[in-house]
Amino acid sequence: MLELPKDVNDLLLAPVILAVERRLEELGALDVDELADRVALESDANIDDPARRVEGLLRTVAYLQEMHDWDLAWDERGIRLTHGAHSVVLGAPKVFAQFLTAVGPGSRFTLGDPRGH
Question: Which of 60, 61, 40, 59 is nearest to 49 (CA)?
Fold first, then answer.
């Protein structure tokens, strides 16, 4: 059964999705070090703490975006936008997974102690 929009926030889903999709493309074009810098700057999150990276990444995706009461969350398939009972998942760029997990050798962005201990 087709569910009609119930309020203005439901009607604003399309512009929110388009804005978030543009933001995902912009952030997805960065390498992992550039993304780490952007997340640290735009979210003010402690990205050295792996538990805080998802929060920082989501805050960066939403940075300067009008979300119209749609919330972002990490989903195993990408970025989930939710408002009430409505939910949509947008695919996340590959660099997001690289940022959220251990980074390979040679990167200045590491998960461990920056002093190498």
Answer: 40
Kindly report the pTM of this predicted structure: 0.78
* Among candidate residues 98, 80, 101, the one with its CA nearest the CA of residue 30: 98
CA 90/CA 28 separation, integer angstroms:
13
Helices within the chain (DSSP H only): 8-11, 13-28, 32-43, 50-62, 94-100
> Could you give the C-alpha distances from 92 to 18, 30, 33, 68, 95, in angstroms and in order?
14, 13, 17, 21, 8
- Contact between residue 100 and residue 53 where contact means Cβ atoms under 8 Å apart: yes
Report yes or no: 9 and 69 within 8 Å, Cβ to Cβ: yes
Instruction: State the Cα–Cα distance between residues 6 and 30, nearest whole angstrom.
Output: 37
Side chain identity at residue 42, one-letter code: E
**What are the pLDDT digits (tens) for 75-114?**
989 999 998 888 899 999 999 999 988 544 444 555 444 4
Question: Whole-angstrom Cα distance, residue 43 to residue 29?
Answer: 18
Whats the size of the chain, residue-wise? 117
